[in-house]
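Structure ticket #2291
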Amino acid sequence: MNLTSNNLTVDEAKVKDFVHGRMEAVENGFLCIWCQKGKDGPKRSKFFGPDESDQAALYCADMAKKGWDVYFGQGFLKNPLQSPLRGKESDVVAIICFWFDCDIRGGVHKENPKNLPTEGESKAFFRDEIPFKPSQVIHSGGGLHLYWLFDEPFIIKTENDRAFIKDISSRFQLLIIEKMKSHGWKQDNTSDLVRVLRVLRVPGTFNFKSKPVMVEVI
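Resolution: structure written out below.
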């Protein structure tokens, strides 16, 4: 069943497939779904445990149907929190991937478009210049979100675990950022473990920043 928002159809099957894929990888921990209505509108967060992937997918679709931008947290949290909180790095108990938020020309960004790659340039860059090929690429309606999925979740049991994975996540993104600089392109480091990335969106929902565009796995 698809849901409709302002004559736009929310692809519930894509939402469910993506959310299930994220949540079924982790036995313990809560996924944060964070939503905002308009640029300066209200914000909400809702947390879902390992056995609640169906409920999480339905919530994402329902909020998109109502015209909310829908985002998800990269780190799974130890406990659910009160809305609209998203958590801190100290709350993260598991991550399932590394990620990169690549701004591209044509999206709504603070950066000068001259300092950003086109969609074609960014695809060629990750294909030809980064030896680690992404497991998944999502078009957010304003950029590309790339994910390098782990064979199994990285579980954070100690502060040493946290420092270790945070350091690698940061260095992984810095490697990409430095390579992009050689082309004159500027990108932000978004490696913090609790990152919801106001532009890391759920496929099947819409980017409402300007003209609504569906978020797609490409």
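Closing remark: The chain has a mean pLDDT of 89.
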